[in-house]
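Researcher: Structure for this, please.
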Amino acid sequence: MVVFGLISSLFDIITFMTLRFLFHAGPELFRTTWFVESLLTELAVALVVRTRRPFFRSRPGTVLLATTAGVAGVAVALPYLPGVSVLGFVPLPAPILASVILIAGAYVAATELAKVRFFRGRRIVGRSENRFSTP
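Model: Predicted structure, C-alpha cell format:
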C-alpha cells in the first residue's frame, strides 16, 4: 500500500504542477480540474487493483462496469451543467480536459505496473485449496 500511495502522491504533484505552471489555473479552475481528475483516477484504479490479471484482460462485473462508467461520465459532464457554479466549478477548457485524461491514463499505467511487480513471483492460492489443512 505504501507503493500505491507514493504513486498516487506523485501523480497528485504532477497534476498540481501542470495546473499551476502550465495552465496558471485560478482557484475555480483548479478546484474543478482536481475534482474531475481525482474521481476519474480513483474509479480507474479501483478497476486495476480488483484483480491480479491485467485490468484490461479481466472484465469487471456488469454492475461495477456500468456504475464506474456512469460516475465517470457524470464527473466529466458536471462542470458543463447549468447551476454547477454553486459548487465553485467552471467548465474545463479542452487542453485541460485532455491533460486530465493523459495524467489519469499514466496513473493507471503506473498502478498496473506496480501491481504486476507486486504479484510477480507470488504463488496463487486456488479457491479449492485449504491452506490450513495438514498433510
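Researcher: Any notable elements?
Model: Confidence is low (pLDDT under 50) at residues 128-135. Residues 2-119 form one domain.
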